[in-house]
Design brief:
By secondary structure, this protein is α+β, with helices and mostly antiparallel strands. The longest helix is centred in the C-terminal third of the chain and has 21 residues. The N and C termini lie far apart (about 90 Å). The relative contact order is 0.07.
Length: about 300
């Protein structure tokens, strides 16, 4: 593109960008002087500056994809997206609602630093990226734990790790990745992983364990599969008090009360009733907002189950 042609052919300029995102250096190669590029990013002008040396060729709100592309152009050709942005693109949803940010990994020899919404982490452990729609992503196990190391909330860490396990990541590979990386910020993720290893399979179940400890009751079997004597499946309650035949279900609206999940929950409860098993259902939000009351309900249900078993 010859000098000055870009002004007469903005569409041609756009075709040299990544969805409208382009470096000032590349604009210079296309005949747009750097001063002109920055001048067109001033308030009221048609472009905008996203990051140092990175321009968006329109003044509207950038999409998340454009912000990711800008972060990759800023961090350099070897950069790989990890953390929340990578987790989200790989299908996880248990992510905190903080302002959007892009965490990228770059080789340790790179000198680029963090800027704006971009977190730049230099590492000797550059992962083999998974390329999704043109975006290089760290493997899910690395992305999850890179995000967990930067979260200060036990609830947020537990939620993300629990979903990762539910989606197929194994505890051994999560522990291995945690051990292989920096020790900074690993205390909370390690604690959450040990709790999941003890039997919790969702963030709500981690909270349920805390409430159970408050109750003073004998420990239930966590996520234990129940079957009839003939082998017919009954259910896999979050907690099961074997001695009294009491199942404790942490029933989330998200996971149990969708269109199909609701019918499955009703059928499950019918199987409990047919097998003579009492069931206590608790919403996960109450485990955090009313832990003492839920503990009292658990104790009351346990006593009722004892009375029922004696009467039988």
């Amino acid at each position: 593109m010859k000098t000055g042609d870009w002004a007469r052919d903005p569409e041609g300029l756009y075709q040299h960008s990544r969805g409208g995102v382009i470096t000032v250096a590349r604009l210079g190669e296309l005949g747009v002087p750097s001063m002109t590029a920055y001048r067109r990013c001033r308030p009221g002008k048609p472009w905008q500056r996203l990051l140092p040396g990175i321009v968006l060729l329109h003044s509207g709100t950038p999409t998340r994809r454009q912000l990711v592309d800008a972060a990759l152009l800023y961090a350099g050709p070897d950069a790989v997206v990890t953390g929340a942005a990578s987790c989200r693109r790989q299908g996880l949803r248990a992510l905190p609602g903080h302002p959007f940010r892009v965490h990228v990994l770059v080789p340790n020899s790179h000198k680029v630093g963090a800027s704006g919404y971009v977190i730049v982490e230099r590492t000797f452990r550059m992962p083999q990226p998974i390329v999704e729609a043109g975006v290089p992503l760290a493997p899910l196990v690395r992305s999850v734990l890179d995000e967990c190391r930067r979260l200060g909330s036990r609830q947020e860490v537990s939620a993300l790790l629990a979903e990762a396990v539910q989606r197929g990541l194994s505890l051994p590979e999560l522990f291995a990745e945690l051990d292989a990386g920096s020790s900074r910020g690993t205390a909370i993720p390690r604690e959450a992983l040990h709790r999941i290893a003890d039997g919790a399979r969702s963030a709500a179940e981690v909270d349920a364990m805390k409430v159970w400890r408050m109750s003073g009751l004998p420990e239930p079997q966590w996520n234990h599969e129940l079957r009839e004597e003939n082998g017919e499946y009954i259910a896999t309650p979050d907690g099961y008090f074997v001695a009294v035949g009491l199942a404790w279900e942490i029933d989330s609206y998200d996971f149990h009360f969708g269109k199909q999940q609701y019918a499955a929950t009703v059928a499950r409860n019918a199987r409990y009733a047919a097998a003579g098993i009492a069931v206590l259902q608790t919403l996960p939000s109450r485990l955090r907002t009313e832990p003492k009351r839920v503990a009292a309900e658990l104790v009351a249900a346990h006593r009722a189950a004892i009375a029922r078993s004696r009467a039988a």
